[in-house]
Amino acid sequence: MKMVALYDIHGNLSALEAVLKEVEQEHPDLILVGGDIVPGPMPRAVLERLLALGDTIHAIRGNCEREVVAAFDGLPSSPGMSEEVSARMRWTAKQLEGSQRDVLAHLPEQATFSVDGLGEVLFCHGSPRSDEEMITAAMPEERLREMLAGVTSGSGSSSVGTRICSSTAPLMACAS
Fold first, then answer.
1. Which CATH architecture has domain 3-105?
2. What is the pLDDT of residues 99-125, one digit of tens each?
């Protein structure tokens, strides 16, 4: 399968449109949207644009989707979240329709696909064990191994060789 992965759109419709224009040139079988679709300046329009792509996309949940759904439901923000970020999540939640909230609430945390040239690839936001955990190039190898320990495909197979994670600096693919 030929895939394109888009992460951290953050409600930026003009950037999404520009990227999708380039993606069309690649003719992927699937576009994986790797979380943090929202918040941002145009969350409703971004969700509408992505949903209009139909079966061409598969989205997973990032920490921001989790927080926006909680805000929509009137739940408190996660501990340690600044008031500025909490206000951004509440504003985003107010921009959404109930059906859009439901789409975000039902996104899976991870997805595994067989990708041409890579084999089984696990896609997640953050790390395989937390949508808030950051992976960086400067991270000690021991800590990285701990984060990736026990990672299997969605079917339970241990054949996952590559993990694509976001909320990293920069976006990283980790191969075993």
1. 4-Layer Sandwich (3.60)
2. 999 999 999 999 999 888 888 888 888
